[in-house]
Design a protein that fits this description.
The protein is an alpha+beta fold and about 140 residues long. The protein is built from five helices and six strands; from the N terminus they run E-E-H-E-H-E-H-E-E-H-H. This is DUF302 domain-containing protein.
């Protein structure tokens, strides 16, 4: 499912296993995991309830720098992020922004088409592996 550049894949596993799979796939692909933020834990610390919601912030300079060379404003959307979350029905999802959509947002789609295509392919493979257990 894609809405306004946000790609969401339903996982065949729960939030913990999907998050663990995603982390393993990021590490195996050589990407740097800059941060892993558990929003549900933060909510619990504030006395609030939130279904599992965890964000991963990741990337590498070889992928992101060419985009920022084309338009430094895309730095607001980099590094890349992936969100593992559970909906009200109990289904687990993995969501991420389509790199081509980000490039379009910053007016550099044409100049960065090959870079964003490569990023999209990599993100799609990571997401598929994390949500289905297959690469």
């Amino acid at each position: 499912m894609t809405i306004d550049g946000l790609i969401s894949l339903r996982s065949n596993a729960g939030p913990k296993q999907t998050a663990d799979r995603l982390k393993a796939e990021l590490q195996a692909s050589g990407l740097t995991l800059f941060a892993q933020i558990d929003h549900a834990a933060g909510a619990a610390g504030a006395g609030l309830a939130l279904r599992p919601t965890e964000i991963f912030v990741f990337g590498n300079a070889k992928g992101g720098t060419p985009l920022m060379q084309a338009a430094q404003t895309i730095g607001i959307d980099l590094p890349l992020k992936a969100l593992v979350w559970q909906d009200e029905a109990g289904d687990c999802w993995l969501s991420y922004n389509d790199p081509a959509w980000l490039a379009e947002r910053h007016g550099i789609a044409e100049a960065t088409r090959q870079v964003t295509a490569n990023m999209s392919t990599l993100l799609g493979a990571l997401a598929k592996a994390a949500t289905s257990g297959e690469a």
